[in-house]
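Troubleshooting log. The previous run stalled partway through. Resubmitting the same two chains, unchanged.
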Amino acid sequence: MGFRRLRAAILAAALGVVATPALAQQQRPMVWGDSLPATLDPHAIFDVPSQFVLLNAYDGLYRYQGNPPDLRPWLAESHTTSADGLSWEFTLRAGIKFQDGSEMTAEDVVYSFRRLLSMNRAPAAAFSPVLRPENVTATGPRTVRFVLSSPYAPFLSAIPLVAIVNPRVLAQHTVNNDWGAAWLASNSAGSGAYRIDPATYQARVSMDMTRFADHFLGWGHNQRPIEQVRSRPVMETSTRVLALLRGEIDATDSYLPTDQVERVERNNRTRVARDESMRVFIIRMNNRKPPFDNRDARLCFAHAFNYEGFNNTILRGLVVRNGSPNPNNLWGNPPDLQPYTYDLALARQHCDRARAAGAPLDREIEVHVQNELEQTVQAAQMYQADLRRVGVNLRIVPNTWAGITGATGRAESTPDMWVHWVSTYFVDPENWIGQMYDSQFHGTWKASSWYSNAEVDTLLRRARASLDQAERQTLYQQATRLVVADSPDIWVYNTLNLRGLSRRVQGYQFSPVGSGGEMRLMSLAN
Amino acid sequence: MLSYVVRRLLLALPALLGLVFLTFVLSRVIPGDPAATLAGDAATPAQLAEIRAQYGLDRPILEQAVIHIRQVLTGDFGRSVFSGRPVAEEIGQRLPATLELTFAALFLSTILGIPLGLLAAVNHNGPVDHLVRLLSVGGLAMASFWLAIMLQLVFSMDLDILPLRGRVDVEIGMPPWRTGLVLIDSLLAGRLDMFWDGLLHLVLPAVTLCLPGLATIARFTRSGVLETLQKDFVLYARAAGYGRVRLNAIYVLRNAVNMVVTQIGLLFGALISGAVAVEAIFDWPGLGTYAVQAILSADYKALLAVTLVVGVVYAVVNVLVDVAQALIDPRVAEDAR
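Second attempt completed without errors. Output:
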């Protein structure tokens, strides 16, 4: 007798009941095994796990859906922009209700943006350079106006980052003018398709959600919506995969190790959803630190990485070669751009030239890896062996995300090299090349190569300010050509998101923003 | 006895204070910026600076240490820089899981380790002794993460008789919170289904965790019993006609077990540190996984609180062990005067 049958028998005996047909029909909750964010407050943090809460418990004015991501009106039914690009006006749909039953108005949108900008945490970074809290105003019961201090083309692209919260709920829990932040860290106050049960919430361990039947978009699109979602992050990769195979969870995270793909697909209860994302794997170089202040030295490193070996052998071809800062599947890339190739003879030539120019290539170079993310270690190990063949001694330093990003505030403390991904926070080249190579972002982890090129700065700033899409496209293409020629970093691949799923999960739709975690679209087969 | 207990508790205080200071300094000099964790991925340098100022992270380390110790003395562990929630609240949610697992492992180690050690000693150099020695060496040498995965593969995946991970089944859920210990809370709630479910979930992690402890206790019991068997009183007892079983199980074991009791106290610390790997693999939401997550996210407030809580639990358990020793052998309390 298997464990489940044994348990069912004991359960029945213990409860003294016999399972009825109705009970047998009851839907087992969706068990989601992906990570939970640090806090449930959507204005306090913005990272990949927090998008799960944002997509399910909250709504924004616009939302990305599909792949490639399509920006769709969500709470807003439309928007207008002034000719100078400074004034943006959004019109809310009628009849939107928060989960407490109260109606959403333009004042609630104003409150949400003012809360975001006043708290000034991570998601505010996309707006704070151009938007002040007092410049968000309600011009009618359903219209909101944003007046920017300077034209900012990615404004609309960043709008989905902002969850609209219920000020009436937060007012009851505000302490010392904290905007209800302490309370909202473990509760929710939104209008989203799923309601978080705060009694079951345990940071990083569990979060239960129940379907919100009165969601403003209704449920006509889904005949069998998921009633209960149990979010149960599984810490260890091996346990996560076993839990999926055994049916204890219905979905893994979307970074299933490539060596587990075949195993999951072999099981008749599970499958792997493969979707090209917008998440670029990068090996950073600190361009302020010798030898990386020398272009030849950087080119030497660019030609010494075995892209094909890493992408096709170690990662089993489950990624796509990406030779520039922007993901391949995003606009703004020059169509004829040639990525760097693995060529040790060429690498040697560049290294020799750099040495002749005085670049200290004989010193030990440190590459910091995120120890808990195996791919970063694998890439560094492979690179170490190849660099040794061109006379460069690479030392691998285990570190953590917090450890590395905490050090990138200053060029002196930024590691020589480090390995990471740049994910999709909003879908615009600004999210990648804009924030990575415009020198005004020095001090942030995204700009941690400390690259500086006045011509690139000018192009990126013009692209940021222009509302003409064709012009922006041309400007980003020009900037990309210059950046790639300077080789400030090593761009390796664009991620193919791999999420292990139970076959009972239907309607899973991947989008690079949120990684397919939108429960509203899914259903569960019997 | 009471003054003995009070004396032992007072001796633990300076050690705990030193622990708080040392861990604070260590947590602040290792690489990692709590402000970066708190601010999230997209933060600007200005936002980071604001957070550092808000949390006092820009002050000299010694000043931060003094402030921290003052807060801890008033029972304030601060807020987690990762979640923004009170650390005391988060630890309150996690500690029972670790205690339940650790005590279960300690219980298994003791009830299996002592009889095995006794059997090995009374069969000195016989097949049973060799077998127990083999088990002991294996138990100490085996990596817990390897054993955990093997147990998962065999008992959860192949035989399908025990759960793979977690404390409870997602459909059954946790019993109403009273102590945070699933087994006790489910009994208090009169839910035998939950008790059984919790017990099944406890088996594999507890077995994995108990093995090194079991080996240690078996080895110490064996050597203690062997030593005691050489004592004159054993010879006299045999001459007086005491039966073998009665003599070994009562008189010899009682004299030999004192050293084992000391080991149990020390083992408790080892079990808590061993729980880190076991909790991670079995997805057991205890202090071990909490500490790992705190390290990865540079959540120094959480890390400091975990260290202190483990230190306090360790100190309390060792006082209990001292008391147990004094009860088994009254000479211990006499000597301590």
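Takeaways: Chain B has 14 helices and no strands. Residues 2-73 of chain B form one domain.
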